[in-house]
Amino acid sequence: MTVNSRPARPVILGQNQYGKAENRVVKITRDGATHHIKDLNVSVALSGDMDDVHYSGSNAHVLPTDTTKNTVFAKAKEHGIESAEQFGIHLARHFVTSQEVIHQARIRIEEYAWERIESSDANSRFIGADEVKHSFVRKGQETRLTQITYDGEKWEVVSGLKDLTVMNSTNSEFWGYIKDKYTTLQEAYDRILATSVAAQWRFNWTDDEQKMPHWEKSYEQVRKHMLQAFAETYSLSLQQTLYQMGSRIINNRSEIDEVRFSLPNKHHFLVDLEPFGLKNETADGAVYYAADRPYGLIEGTVLRDGCEARIPVDMTNL
Ligand SMILES: O=c1[nH]c(=O)c2[nH]c(=O)[nH]c2[nH]1
């Protein structure tokens, strides 16, 4: 026997910890029409009196990792997320003080920052000066892309971007779809709409050096129109939003004849907090689970009337 009266073992368990990693929790707070987002990736690692589960398989000291996940979502609703630090402190204290066998909790949090999308002049007159209050673009630059083809006579320039992540925390619905025996999706009348935009747009400039577009200005303007159309469309589907984004570009940028989008529907599911006695309803600011896969993938081309579609269907990311 060893000093602490465990049987002598030829192989000794060293440091160990466990918990649910990468809980993607999104909390929307509604302050009237103004919404606020906290978007976190929370990883829980607990350690303590855990020899038995490793040596004998007894789970008597194990708080399931599934419970640690539920705790993250329930605490986001119950306690709120003022800051990642404050939320992490609250969680760590909860795990260590509520279970005698847990002696240490390590909470790691990544926070994804979002900025509000500025509205177009026309729309700000309509909604009253301010920015759109429920539309956000994720901070951190997207990747800008271009492809130039030249056959000695004519040029073809297709530019684009990828990884431009946007979210509307309201003004999105999805209902009235086909229901067959495999359909379980509930109709949504107020859902989060989020996507990571990949887009390419084809310039109609082919050869006249005097009439070359101002590439930098064009990019900025296309990006702006795309974001504003996303923010200002009351969406009944991501497909409808796609068409609005494309047509806003075609209508405002005469140098562009064709736009193609690949839009993953970044699903945010309302977390069921009923088992913990918590109501989690969209109307009073809710906690969502941001799922990464599988995802709906909505793709399509928007063209100036009379123009030919030339961006290849599978050229999602140049
Ligand atoms: O905007 C959407 N378009 C769909 O085609 C679709 N399908 C689905 O399950 N959810 C959604 N959302």
TrEMBL record:
<comment type="similarity">
    <text>Belongs to the uricase family.</text>
</comment>
<keyword id="KW-0659">Purine metabolism</keyword>
<dbReference type="Pfam" id="PF01014">
    <property type="entry name" value="Uricase"/>
</dbReference>
<comment type="pathway">
    <text>Purine metabolism; urate degradation; (S)-allantoin from urate: step 1/3.</text>
</comment>
<dbReference type="InterPro" id="IPR002042">
    <property type="entry name" value="Uricase"/>
</dbReference>
<protein>
    <recommendedName>
        <fullName>Uricase</fullName>
        <ecNumber>1.7.3.3</ecNumber>
    </recommendedName>
</protein>
<keyword id="KW-0560">Oxidoreductase</keyword>
<comment type="function">
    <text>Catalyzes the oxidation of uric acid to 5-hydroxyisourate, which is further processed to form (S)-allantoin.</text>
</comment>
